Task: structure prediction
Amino acid sequence: MSMLKNPNNAVVKRMAHHSLKTGKRRTVTLFLAIFLSAFMIFTIFTVGVTYFKLQKIQNIRLSGAEFDAIMYGVTGEQAQKCEKNPDITLTGFLGHCGWVEKTDRDNTPNVGLSWADENYWSKMMKPAREKLEGKYPVAEDEIMVTKEALEECGYGELKVGDSITVTYGEYIGLQKGTFRISGIWDGYGTKKIFYMSKAFYEQSGWKRSDAASGRYFLSFRQRLMTKKTQNTFIKSMKLGKQQTLFFVSDLGESVKILEGLIGLSIITCLCAYLLIYNIMYLSVAGRVRHYGLLQTIGMTERQIRGMLKEQLLLVGSAGIGSGCVAGAFISFFLIPVIVKSLGIRKGYVGAIGVQFHPAVLAVTILLAGLTIGLAGWKPVRKAAKISPLEALGYRPSSGARRDRKATRGNVITRISLEQFVKDKKRTAMVLLSLAMSLSVYLCVVTMLGGQAARAIVSNNMDTDLVIQNDTGTKEKAKDRKDIFSSALVKSIQSRKDVTEMHAVLFSEITIPWEPDFMETWMKEFYEKWMSIPYEKERKEYREHPENFGTSLLGIDEQEFDRLNQTFETPISKKDFIAGKACIVYRNGLELADKDLVGKKVTCTLYRNSKKGKSFTVAGVTDDSYYTALLGYPPTLIVSDQVVKSFDEEAFILKAGICYKKEYDRGTEKAVLSLLKKDANARDFSWESKIEEADEMRKAQGNMPQIGMGIVLILAFIGIMNYMNTFVVNVQSRMTELSVMESVGMTDRQLMGMLVREGALYAGGAWGLTLTAGLGIVYLIYQTMNYRGVSFLVPVVPLLLAAAISFVVCIAIPVVTWKVLERQGTVVERIKGVE
Result:
């Protein structure tokens, strides 16, 4: 028998409005869930676009120019092919053509000589240039300099128009010349370099096709390019043996970052879905009798569905609209403030202007609307299906009834556990929502920690400071000297704030020809790095190996332990210390470990060919830290005790220093002051972990703060879901709790029960987070970890989140009961329930 339809459609909308007004708490919670989801989606994509731009700026700052790919050496055919490619918008060329060997004021300046063509200098480098005085050199004796390069040469006071005399090295050997400074520039990128004229480069002996000299830069039309597309392009260039082509990180890794943003948006929508669904589900479950009685007065299932949909439409429209407005505010006002704080100005590293993207607005409305529709569909359908007879006989129940057997143990704890598992669906929803929020929190703080300046630098530098003897890499032995005096070493080691100092010893050696190891090595070396074939110089190498010097490096036991950890198969420490085994620096050659390990290599002292020693190659490293004078034969790494006994004139090439407190600026200042006071101060150079981190931090900007803002909003959604569920839960159990109180349960016992229930929710959520959630976090982290930083969850943020989540989960049920308890006496609360 069907109900007679009452044409009350005009009343449905008024009832929907009235229901929203009377259920203010539910309405506000529902509005906030929709508002935050719309706000999050809009902000995530807008911030994502800005992040791409900031990442581009970071790469421009670190590279000193704006480009997408770089190729080592370029033939005329390859250059013509790139210039005709419609996907390539700009090409530029930089040719390395020498180095400054010495000046009258400094014997070890670390300054290179390069020529930049018009496209590279005027277009690609322009975004990274802060200021320019003068013009690019045209004549062969003109140079473009930086203040840092002049200071490195000992002539920091020179200006445009002044001249400087230097001894420089080029393809044909050492030369001496006087150059007029045609311009001075400043900005980002390599500063210790003199830019030369095209005429100078052409007479230097280098060619564009030489991989050791030529650097061909490419800018692509696409902003995103997958690894597959990149590899296809690389293959199409038909690179030679010596050539290499690689893309900058933002072009390829942006695809992964975009996938991460989409994933974050999906998680946001899912969190919002769980909250909206939970609100609607609990609302319908608590008003079963209301919806059933509405049908007795003529309201149809369709009209009930219409009323609830009207409520969702009203709240959804308001939530999505205000969320987009709030997102726009963040995009147009907050982001420009952040960008401005980076020091980005018009014409400098590409000024960022946040623009309105209709697609972002459309995606926000679509995703938020879809979330609301899916979340509300089942509760609306459930409300419409309630019959009057079901409503009249309805009694609130949150789970199946079970016979309870008497058991031993804490009664309060048992009741709390039973309540936790009674409504499995509700419990699962709350745990899932909390666990998702906590997992996203862990994901973002782990990624932010992994991409922090200190983490990136620490991943690349094991020591706080590396001091180098610049004379040690001089080509001629007479120009090298031991400047690490025993007094200097002792003064550094004796400092209480310095925990370790590991020296690398240097000795020049030769490695005579033999048909196995050295024949394989030299053949590969010439194919990879030399412009002349090995066959032309094989005879000279066999008869005069002294013309082919190389380096023997000695490291201590601690340094060996660190290096040994990088090998898939660790080598015998006993054999290494005893001088039986050595490690070879691969030097970029395409030789596999199996081609070298196990081979025997014999070396002789460079100045005394009669003194020799043999080793077995036990490992191969690609770490350029273990290099000195890079000769044609391989660099051998052995124990420092072996070097000392083999060459009594061996000296310290470099020393790695570890501070008691990492990144301690006070310690570094004290150590560097010792160097600057030394008589050989100008022959020292250093790499500082602190300076590297400062440069990285300056290039990164304030994106971590934006990421943490997103985390906090997601955490807020999860807490709201829990809060809404538990408030309704305590409300629906008012009679039960009041009856417990009436039969003797003390207020303390009641609070203890609610506290235990809250702790169970917090513990369950963290259980999910630290198992399945952490596994997902690891996969996401490795997908976006293009810098190769080790996976490490920050302990302090983890403990902070755990403490806050437990406090919130425990406090909400207690506070809710305290508020509801004030509504009347025990008798009034029991009578007040239907």
About this structure: The chain has a mean pLDDT of 81.
